[in-house]
């Protein structure tokens, strides 16, 4: 049995052997102690979701999941025997790293919940196997000597650089700290992996050269000194290459950029190795040369909509990861030593400024997160060469102007003077002169350099110092904040945004508070609301509705009662003049002409002056029989009073036409026969009269109108009327 506190590489175990059960002593790590078990290779979930393919995947995945769970349950010595000597296990793990779906890859996980659960189980089991393989000490009793552990994982290819890169991509989300400890232990115990990484980086750079070559772009860094071939310019470009090749090219670039970013983000210690190969300049050159052509090809070419969206998503993701890779390399190779104040601070500042000087040609890359780094270097490290930083800032500003965006950046000299002469008290109460997007950019720049500060504290500092991010960083690092900021918690969170009042509460409308205002009323009379034509109502029903006539009938009937004579009763108690209210005394009445007898000398009879026009009831208010009688009376009156002096014009025209025809017949004039030139529709044949009329018209059409102008002009010229 195993002894306590003895490393696995020195441990020997005694086990029965053979059919007779004889005991034998073997090292704990021995091929004969390996269990005979065949691990299946992993296959990704089917994309089309066919029932047969899903069943096949679930069956294969179930076997893999059970085998990995069995492996993880083995004791320490049995686990390492299986890992070191079982080749089928290594093929299973390699197949998962190669075929497991990445973040942007289409997969069939959404087709079935069972498929998604099985994929999660395998994903967790594979991660736990790699994590256990990277641990040389599980407990005080179960451990391996570090030197032997380094030889085991290196000589048996349990880990290599491609495997480590794939592990970072697949398991980095949510496990970054655990993966960092795992990879750090591998590189610490076996430094040979640094040499392998040093040999791998040129291959990664070759990937960029291959992409440029496939796009028909000649890179300056890949020049071999040999002359170009005659057909070198005839190679295909991103605009002319086949659709499948372009999709594979974008997938290749996206996978490469994502893998490098995941590895550097989890294991920043590798940034120095990438720096030795001048990888940052190579990356910036590739970004400037390849990304615009690929974006143009995806936008301009006609692809399937789903394919075009997938390609644009991949190229956007690649562009983002390339910028973040450059940010990580600068952060961990230049800025971090500067912020920590190490001995190599001056050289790091010089390296950072050299990198930015090289970036000035790559205008698309410098318009990202790098402006703040230039100013931070100038603030933290009081550079004597202000001209250099001013030159860099002007280059960044010109890069923004090249893409049509105007941005003004403070010069380093002005900044230095402001930082030395102004204090937070002088800048207090500054008004926000930046937009929301620029404010978020300032927050990101400061948090990239000072991640321990809260967004609320950074906002307060920006407001205090006039939204000058460089001045904020300088005062925070030199501990020269104003007293009002010193009292604040540096981890203060960002205050919640005030909710704006709703549009309905601030609106103003002419129909507010009416019977149909649904925003201010809880109940409405739905009987007065309908969509389209009102139900059970037609035009005939509307015309037959005479209710309004009945309402007006009583009003007009009051006018029908006409009082010709006013009876006056012999009642001495009543005033005669005030009978029926016919007389009202008016002190201002003008009675100058009351003695004149108006109409006395006229020839009209007395009865005509006294007679009044009888009242006529409107037709709409008359009843049926009365209305018909009155209409008959009016028709008779109209017939009697009809004016026969103005005759009907149609009758007059008929009479004139008759007289004209009679006159022509007396003179022997025969009217021309009716023409049948128009004829019937095409394709049905024409009558004989139509054919003759058309022929006659064709022969005689030069007699009138403007058809004989040439003939008459020749005639005038022959007679000398027109000079020739």
TrEMBL record:
Coiled coil, from the record: none
Gene Ontology MF term list: ubiquitin binding
Organism: Cyprinus carpio carpio
Protein name (database record): Activating signal cointegrator 1 complex subunit 2
Biased composition (Acidic residues): 629-640
Span of domain CUE: 438-481
InterPro entries assigned: ASCC2 (IPR052586), ASCC2_CUE (IPR041800), CUE (IPR003892), UBA-like_sf (IPR009060)
Pfam family, one: CUE
Basic and acidic residues biased stretches: 641-660, 691-701
Residue ranges, annotated region (Disordered): 568-590, 603-724
Domain of life, per lineage: Eukaryota
BP-aspect Gene Ontology terms: regulation of DNA-templated transcription
